C-alpha cells in the first residue's frame, strides 16, 4: 500500500488523488483543466531538508465527527463546572451536597420493618447540603458480558492479563476501533512518594500484573482512557485493599465490564480512577480532587435514593435493577478513609432496603450464602460485610436482619474455597464476620426477652473462637505474611472483647476483658507502625480501645491511628474513630467508672450525629 503524498498539489490532495508532482502544474490537473498550485509549509526544524505541502482539509464526515466529539466534551465539562459551582454556592461550610430526604418505595406486602433494624426511609440527617433532586426510578445499567467483547476490547483484556509474562516484553495497544495506537512509550509512575517498606516488592509485583503495559500515553486521546483507568486502580489498590494480589483479576474484570457498559458508566469509572490516582499520590486531596470526590458521592447517593421497586414479586430483572443502584458503592466505601465516618454510615443506611431488594424471597437473606457464593461482582457481599464491620466499630445494631446459622463446620467451608468471602478486601476473616452477626442476633433475642445469655452458650462460643482456623494470606515477603497474620489474630481478640462486653455485658475492668485487651496490644506492639497492617487494624483497634483503661495503652492506640497521615485530618473516618475513643476515655475518667459497650454507641452519636 502506497503512502499518502506529502508533497503533492493542493487540488489532488483535496480530491484524495495520487499526484505525479510535476512542476509547475501536475499532469492530472493539466489534463482536466483544473487550477494547480503547490502550497508549502515551513519546516519544523532546520534539520528538515524536504519541503512539504499543506495537508488536505478533512472531508465533511470527519469534520462532523470531530465537531460532535468536541461538543460532547465541552458539554460534559460545562455540566461538571456548573455542578461544582452549584455545590460551592450552596454548601457553605459543609462538605457534602444535600438530597432532600427521598424515600425508597418498597412493596407493602412484605414486613420490611422486620428486616430493617433502621427506618426504610432515607436518613433524616442528610450528608448533603445542596438543593434536592428528583425521585425518578433509576434506569438499569447492566455491564456488557466480557464474553462478547469486540476484537479491540479483547485485545485490551489480553493486554492486562494477570498471567506471568516477561517484564521486558513489549505490547501493542489496540483502541476500540481496532487501530494501533502510536503513542506507546514508558509509563511514568504516579505512586505516592514514600519510604521503601517491607512489602514494596509485593506491591510493585501487583501493579505490574494488574496493568502490565509500561506506557506514557496522551490522556486527551479517548482510546487511551482504559489504560489510565487500570493504571490508577493499580496504584490505589495496594493502599486500600488487604490483599491486592488476590483482588487483582476479579477487580480488573469488573472495571473493564463497567467501563464498556455504557457512556454513563464509563464516565463514572473514569471519575473514580481519577480520584483514586490522586489519593495514590497523596491522602490529602487538593481542591480539584475534593470536587471530584464530592461529585462522585453525589452521583452514587442519587443512584441509591432514586431506586423504586418496579414490580412485585421481584423478578430477576428487578433484582438486577436493585444491584445496579448499588454499583460503585464498593469503590466509594473503599475511599471512605478520606470521608467523614457519618457519610459512610448514612449511605449504608440509605442502601439497606435496596440491598434487600437484590435478593429473591424468602427473607431474611442467608449470610453464609452471601459470603460463600462467588459472583462476578462483589456488590452484595461488600454491603453485608460493611454492615457488620461498621456495626461493631460504632456500637449500632446491624442495618439488616440476616439468617445466620453458626457452627465450626460452616467455618471450614471458607477453608475449602479461598476465593470466597471478602477477607482479601477488609482484612477481617469471613468466619468472624459470621460470628459477629450471629452474636448480634443473640444479643437482640435476649434483650427482647429480658433475659441473659445462657452461660453454656458463652462457653461454647469461647471454645469456637479459639478453634476457628484461618488460612494465612500468602505473600512472597515473609514480613508481610506475618503482618497480615497479626491483623487476623487481632480480629480474634476483638471477637473475644465483643463476646464479653457486648453479649455478656461485662465492663472494661472484667478480668476476661483485661486479659484479651492485653493480648491485643501485645500482638499490635509486635509489628512496627506501617500502613499495612495499621490501616486494616482501625476497626479492631476501636473495639480494643473501648476496653482500654490505662492512659499509656490509650496513647499507643492513638499513635497507631495517627500514623496514617490522612487520619490527622478532621472529617476522615480514622480521625472520627479516634474522637469516638477519646470521648469514651474522657467520659469514663470523669465519671470514675470502667467503660461499657453502650458507651461506644453513645460516643458515636455525639461525634458523628448518626
Automatic annotation (TrEMBL):
<dbReference type="GO" id="GO:0005634">
    <property type="term" value="C:nucleus"/>
</dbReference>
<feature type="domain" description="Zn(2)-C6 fungal-type">
    <location>
        <begin position="8"/>
        <end position="38"/>
    </location>
</feature>
<keyword id="KW-0539">Nucleus</keyword>
<dbReference type="GO" id="GO:0000981">
    <property type="term" value="F:DNA-binding transcription factor activity, RNA polymerase II-specific"/>
</dbReference>
<dbReference type="InterPro" id="IPR001138">
    <property type="entry name" value="Zn2Cys6_DnaBD"/>
</dbReference>
<dbReference type="GO" id="GO:0008270">
    <property type="term" value="F:zinc ion binding"/>
</dbReference>
<dbReference type="Pfam" id="PF00172">
    <property type="entry name" value="Zn_clus"/>
</dbReference>
<dbReference type="InterPro" id="IPR036864">
    <property type="entry name" value="Zn2-C6_fun-type_DNA-bd_sf"/>
</dbReference>
<dbReference type="InterPro" id="IPR021858">
    <property type="entry name" value="Fun_TF"/>
</dbReference>
<protein>
    <recommendedName>
        <fullName>Zn(2)-C6 fungal-type domain-containing protein</fullName>
    </recommendedName>
</protein>
<feature type="region of interest" description="Disordered">
    <location>
        <begin position="44"/>
        <end position="70"/>
    </location>
</feature>
<dbReference type="Pfam" id="PF11951">
    <property type="entry name" value="Fungal_trans_2"/>
</dbReference>
Amino acid at each position: 500500500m502506497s503512502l499518502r503524498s506529502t508533497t503533492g498539489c493542493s487540488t489532488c490532495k483535496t480530491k484524495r488523488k495520487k499526484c505525479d508532482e510535476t512542476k509547475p502544474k501536475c499532469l492530472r490537473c493539466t489534463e482536466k483543466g483544473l487550477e494547480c498550485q503547490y502550497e508549502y509549509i515551513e519546516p519544523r526544524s532546520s534539520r528538515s531538508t524536504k519541503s512539504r505541502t499543506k495537508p488536505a482539509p478533512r472531508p465533511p464526515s470527519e469534520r462532523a465527527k470531530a465537531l460532535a466529539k468536541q461538543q460532547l466534551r465541552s458539554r460534559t465539562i460545562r455540566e461538571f463546572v456548573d455542578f461544582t459551582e452549584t455545590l460551592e454556592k450552596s454548601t457553605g461550610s459543609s462538605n457534602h451536597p444535600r438530597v432532600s430526604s427521598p424515600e425508597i418505595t418498597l412493596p407493602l406486602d412484605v414486613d420490611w420493618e422486620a428486616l430493617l433494624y433502621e427506618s426504610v426511609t432515607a436518613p433524616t440527617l442528610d450528608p448533603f447540603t445542596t438543593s434536592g433532586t428528583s425521585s425518578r426510578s433509576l434506569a438499569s445499567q447492566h455491564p456488557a458480558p466480557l464474553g462478547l467483547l469486540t476484537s479491540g476490547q479483547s485485545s485490551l483484556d489480553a493486554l492486562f492479563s494477570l498471567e506471568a509474562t516477561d517484564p521486558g516484553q513489549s505490547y501493542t495497544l489496540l483502541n476500540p476501533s481496532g487501530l494501533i495506537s502510536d503513542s506507546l512509550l514508558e509509563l511514568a509512575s504516579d505512586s505516592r512518594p514514600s519510604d521503601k517498606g517491607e512489602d514494596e516488592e509485593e506491591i510493585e509485583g501487583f501493579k505490574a500484573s494488574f496493568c502490565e503495559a509500561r506506557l506514557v500515553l496522551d490522556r486527551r486521546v479517548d482510546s487511551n482512557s482504559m489504560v489510565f483507568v487500570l493504571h490508577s486502580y493499580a496504584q490505589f489498590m495496594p493502599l486500600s485493599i488487604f490483599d491486592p494480589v488476590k483482588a487483582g483479576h476479579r477487580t480488573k474484570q469488573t472495571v473493564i465490564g463497567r467501563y464498556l457498559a455504557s457512556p454513563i458508566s464509563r464516565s463514572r469509572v473514569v471519575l473514580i480512577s481519577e480520584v483514586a490516582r490522586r489519593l495514590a499520590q497523596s491522602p490529602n486531596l487538593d481542591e480539584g480532587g475534593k470536587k471530584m470526590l464530592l461529585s462522585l458521592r453525589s452521583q452514587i447517593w442519587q443512584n441509591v435514593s432514586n431506586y423504586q421497586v418496579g414490580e412485585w414479586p421481584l423478578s430477576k430483572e428487578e433484582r438486577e435493577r436493585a444491584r445496579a443502584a448499588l454499583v460503585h458503592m464498593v469503590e466509594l466505601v473503599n475511599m471512605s478513609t478520606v470521608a467523614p465516618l457519618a457519610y459512610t454510615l448514612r449511605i449504608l443506611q440509605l442502601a439497606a432496603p435496596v440491598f434487600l431488594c437484590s435478593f429473591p424471597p424468602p427473607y431474611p437473606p442467608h449470610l453464609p450464602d452471601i459470603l460463600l457464593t462467588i459472583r462476578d461482582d462483589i456488590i452484595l457481599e461488600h454491603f453485608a460485610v460493611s454492615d457488620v464491620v461498621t456495626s461493631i466499630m460504632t456500637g449500632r445494631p446491624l442495618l439488616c436482619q440476616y439468617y445466620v446459622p453458626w457452627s465450626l463446620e460452616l467455618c471450614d467451608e471458607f477453608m475449602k474455597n479461598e476465593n470466597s468471602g471478602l477477607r482479601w478486601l477488609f482484612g477481617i476473616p469471613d468466619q468472624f464476620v459470621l460470628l459477629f452477626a450471629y452474636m448480634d442476633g443473640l444479643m437482640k433475642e435476649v434483650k427482647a426477652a429480658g433475659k441473659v445469655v445462657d452461660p453454656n452458650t458463652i462457653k461454647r462460643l469461647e471454645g469456637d473462637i479459639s478453634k476457628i482456623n484461618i488460612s494465612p494470606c500468602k505473600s512472597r515477603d515473609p514480613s508481610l505474611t506475618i503482618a497480615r497474620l497479626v491483623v487476623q489474630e487481632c480480629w480474634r481478640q476483638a471477637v473475644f472483647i465483643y463476646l464479653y462486653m457486648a453479649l455478656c455485658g461485662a465492663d472494661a475492668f472484667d478480668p476476661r476483658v483485661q486479659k484479651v485487651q492485653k493480648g491485643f496490644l501485645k500482638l499490635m506492639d509486635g509489628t512496627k507502625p506501617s500502613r499495612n497492617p495499621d490501616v486494616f487494624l482501625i476497626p479492631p483497634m476501636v473495639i480494643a480501645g473501648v476496653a482500654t483503661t490505662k492512659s499509656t495503652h490509650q496513647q499507643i492506640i492513638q499513635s497507631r491511628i495517627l500514623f496514617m497521615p490522612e487520619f490527622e485530618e478532621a472529617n476522615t473516618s480514622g480521625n472520627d474513630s479516634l474522637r469516638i475513643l477519646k470521648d469514651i476515655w474522657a467520659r469514663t475518667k470523669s465519671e470514675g467508672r470502667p467503660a461499657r459497650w453502650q458507651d461506644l454507641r453513645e460516643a458515636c452519636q455525639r461525634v458523628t450525629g448518626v
